[in-house]
Queue: 2 jobs
Job 1
Amino acid sequence: MPPERRGESPEEYFEMGKRFFFPSADGATDPELALKYFLLAAQAGHAPAQRLLGVTYLEGSVLPQDLPQARRWLTAAAEQNDPQAAFTLALMFAKGQGVPKRWDAAYRLLSRPGVIGLPEARELRRKLKDELLNLYPGLRDCLGQAELALRARLTPTQKRFIPPFWSSAREGDDQKEFDLLLDVNLGIRAEENAFAVLRDFQERYYRDMVALHQSPAPSPTEAPLR
């Protein structure tokens, strides 16, 4: 059925597009016709079709590479909570591929429900944070020294149950820390101010975790964190 025919649902357009896009038993394909069907589905709000169009424009293998179109369709799919579209869009922001290089935009996309559960999204979040921290080794070193001092005040039992702050920041604080470091990167905050705020996160984390994992009374030689 030619794409000019109207009345089919977006899902039917999408399925028709897949029939021509992916090789059949005889290996025959018609990518040009398939993409017309995908476009009809995408224009009708079909998120998988929007994602497929975005990826196709991004890769430039079937269609000529068109990064603005890739961003347009991936954004449309991501706004409908398509996890793979959001992840691919985050990669574009992380690399500055056809968009301004914005680690904050990438990180927020990767932190969305549904996206954060993807192993590749969690790995990219970690890399983004590490890249930004590597720009400011002084922050990492200062926090590391503070970490040693705070953990020295834990009892042996508390040390077994309380993970290090930097690898286990609480939900919400993790995003705040990244936003703060990004502010430093953009020159909005001074590095010294960023350290003060991060140190506050660090201390609150240990206070709350100690309260959560109360251990038996320490020996006289132990000075638990209060």
Job 2
Amino acid sequence: MTRVEVDIPSDDLPLNNYHLCEIAQEVPRDATRRRWTLRADYRCPGGSHHHAPVNLSESPLYLDLSWHQTTDDPALPVGVFRLDLNGLLRDGYIRHDPEGSNGTNVRLRVFRDDDGNFYVKTNQGTGLLLANGNIAPATPLAADITNAPANRVETTTYRILRDTELARKVKLLHGYRCQICGYRIKLPSGLQYAEAHHIQPLGEPHNGPDVLSNIICVCPNHHAELDYCTVALTISSLTQVADHPNDRKYVDYHNQIFSQK
């Protein structure tokens, strides 16, 4: 994998630093796990941050990261990340604590920069992209939903919006941009929103696999069109990134269903 070093952070950077940090699919029972919450009201030059001493013996360290948009809002989970502390120290993203010493204690700093992304970095150093920061843990409520009574008509629609770790990973890799049209929804809270679609649907009768190559990041409009199979797909029409190639066989399966409509 390729390391991304950031001098001027960009919200279009892919999450492809897997040799130093990666989204954890699970946390081993005997692993060291730390839970940090960054707050919008706790800032220093460059953005909100949290830091603490850790020991190299804790590597790989599993960091469970959350974010408070405001002090009155509940904490939003950013994700659980597996950090290679020795690699981070070697490449200059963390430093010995105290600085200049040669012991096993290091200081880990996580910043949420003004671009909205999360980085592991020193106060003055370059940043290692940890996560495209605008991660919504669940589908946000629309602005027109209130407690006021409203006339209701009962309807039934079967559309499943999944938010698995793989789905989040795909969204991160594409910066929450639709792989078909490139559109990205930015919410008033500063969060970004996209949906994940399984090209070959899960479950009966399709039995598609829950794997990265069968998942695409899409906007809600294209997600609905794909769910109801109103559009065909081609590999060339899908934006691809190095760490997320889509498999043509799943696209062919979708198009087979489309041709039968």
